[in-house]
């Protein structure tokens, strides 16, 4: 079925349209999880802890890609909705160039400062070498990674969500095969795992670049362009929420690691790493759904089709509630089996991981609303509101919770802080959704 952004979306059509983007994000998360599985089981928990200590820093430097992808995607979708296809392609082409240039700069900075950053994050002598090797190799692939993140959004706006899914599948298989070959087979340790991830990101970024550079049958194509300051400003101001969200999540992860090193040592960091890998898969469902619906919202906002916006909003809220309940129950049920897969070789680490994951389960019901709210306002080109939701959710509330709760509840306070933060953020999201409903006519 050929589904277009201008269509009326029933539940069936909406799910069919967003399913590739959900699958794309889940698959991206799964091959990240496979990375962790190979390192934990074939290299050891010290290397596993080292990798999880440095990953937040690499994600901080890659946050520009999320900003350009989400902010630019909303602008391009709105421009298409206004019937200005040529201008949309010029904006798209300009943002691709910006991504490549900024990605190269970020890579150089990251490689240069990797060792002092690893020390700042708490890496001891046993973890330092693995932190630096893994981080520098991932940094070298940053330009491709940023393109991959951008194209995950733009392929949906181009009405090619299926292609986005299959590119991600191929990239994921590349990572998994190389993990098996380099980590399990050749015993290259974290070097092999980093190469596997970096090369898979190159596949995910370069394949769509080639597609959009050549003549194609999608809504978007890379064409001659120029420096577009106004488009860059709108993209950055609109995508600032995703930029802040990714940076703040990374900074909060660093803070979690520091707190866990204090309360539980190396085991705490390893347990948190397991929870984060699994969380990526669960959260990917919400992120994928919002990546899929954002172009629909942006297009209908540009076309001033209020009736269809109300339709998408209502269905999105119902689907978010249903998915949140299902994920929360699944998290409780799967806590022990998933912990066993990752760290079953260490009884103490297994129990710590299982308990932490059970605490995290509640957050999966709450976070879907907050992720949707932030993405929804980004799609409506309201970057400031989206940024406020993301900033309060990931910086203010999580930082406060992870600093305060452990004082009274020890390591359980660390695990519970995410759910407390999501609950507080839910109040903020609800406030904006109610306050701005008459401006955008989604209710």
Which descriptors would you attach to this protein?
globular, 443 residues, mainly alpha
Note down, in words, how this protein is organized.
With 443 residues, this protein is mainly alpha-helical. The chain has one domain. It is 87% helix and 0% strand. It has helices spanning 11-42, 45-61, 63-81, 85-112, 114-120, 125-140, 142-157, 161-185, 189-213, 229-264, 266-302, 306-343, 347-379, 383-409, 411-435, 437-440. The longest helix is centred in the last third of the chain and has 38 residues, at 306-343. It is globular. The two termini are 29 Å apart. The mean pLDDT is 87.
Order of helices and strands: HHHHHHHHHHHHHHHH
Q: Which structural category fits the helices and strands?
A: mainly alpha
Number of helices: 16
Mean pLDDT: 87
The number of distinct structural domains comes to 1
What's a concise summary of this model?
The protein is mainly alpha-helical.
SSE layout and pairings?
Blueprint: H1 11-42, H2 45-61, H3 63-81, H4 85-112, H5 114-120, H6 125-140, H7 142-157, H8 161-185, H9 189-213, H10 229-264, H11 266-302, H12 306-343, H13 347-379, H14 383-409, H15 411-435, H16 437-440
């Amino acid at each position: 079925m050929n589904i277009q952004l201008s269509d009326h979306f029933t539940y069936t059509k909406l799910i069919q349209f967003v399913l590739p983007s959900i699958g794309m994000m889940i698959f991206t998360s799964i091959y990240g999880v496979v990375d962790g599985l190979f390192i934990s089981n074939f290299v050891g928990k010290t290397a596993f802890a080292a990798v999880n200590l440095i990953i937040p820093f690499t994600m901080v430097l890659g946050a520009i890609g999320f900003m350009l992808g989400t902010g630019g995607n909303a602008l391009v979708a709105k421009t298409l909705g206004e019937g200005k296809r040529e201008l949309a392609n010029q904006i798209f082409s300009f943002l691709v160039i910006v991504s490549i240039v900024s990605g190269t700069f970020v890579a150089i900075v990251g490689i240069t400062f990797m060792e002092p950053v690893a020390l700042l994050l708490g890496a001891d002598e046993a973890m330092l070498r693995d932190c630096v090797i893994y981080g520098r190799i991932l940094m070298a692939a940053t330009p491709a990674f940023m393109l991959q993140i951008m194209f995950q959004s733009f392929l949906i706006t181009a009405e090619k969500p299926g292609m986005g899914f299959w590119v991600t599948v191929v990239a994921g298989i590349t990572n998994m095969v190389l993990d098996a070959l380099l980590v399990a087979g050749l015993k290259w340790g974290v070097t092999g795992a980093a190469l596997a991830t970096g090369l898979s990101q190159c596949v995910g970024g370069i394949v769509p670049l080639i597609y959009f550079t050549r003549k194609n049958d999608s809504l978007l194509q890379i064409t001659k362009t120029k420096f577009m300051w106004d488009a860059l400003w709108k993209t950055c101001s609109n995508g600032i929420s995703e930029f802040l969200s990714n940076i703040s999540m990374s900074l909060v992860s660093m803070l979690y690691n520091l707190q866990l090193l204090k309360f539980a040592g190396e085991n705490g960091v390893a347990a948190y790493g397991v929870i984060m890998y699994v969380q990526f898969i669960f959260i990917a469902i919400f992120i994928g759904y919002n990546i899929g619906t954002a172009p629909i919202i942006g297009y209908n906002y540009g076309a001033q089709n209020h009736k269809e916006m109300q339709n998408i909003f209502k269905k999105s809220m119902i689907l978010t509630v249903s998915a949140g309940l299902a994920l929360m129950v699944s998290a409780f049920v799967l806590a022990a089996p998933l912990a066993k897969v990752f760290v079953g070789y260490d009884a103490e680490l297994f129990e710590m991981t299982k308990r932490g994951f059970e605490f995290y389960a509640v957050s999966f019901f709450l976070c879907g609303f907050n992720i949707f709210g932030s993405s929804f306002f980004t799609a409506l080109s309201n970057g400031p509101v989206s940024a406020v939701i993301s900033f309060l959710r990931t910086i203010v509330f999580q930082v406060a919770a992870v600093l305060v709760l452990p004082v009274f509840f020890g390591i359980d306070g660390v695990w519970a802080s995410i759910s407390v933060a999501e609950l507080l953020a839910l109040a903020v999201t609800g406030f904006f959704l109610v306050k701005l409903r008459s401006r955008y006519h989604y209710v």
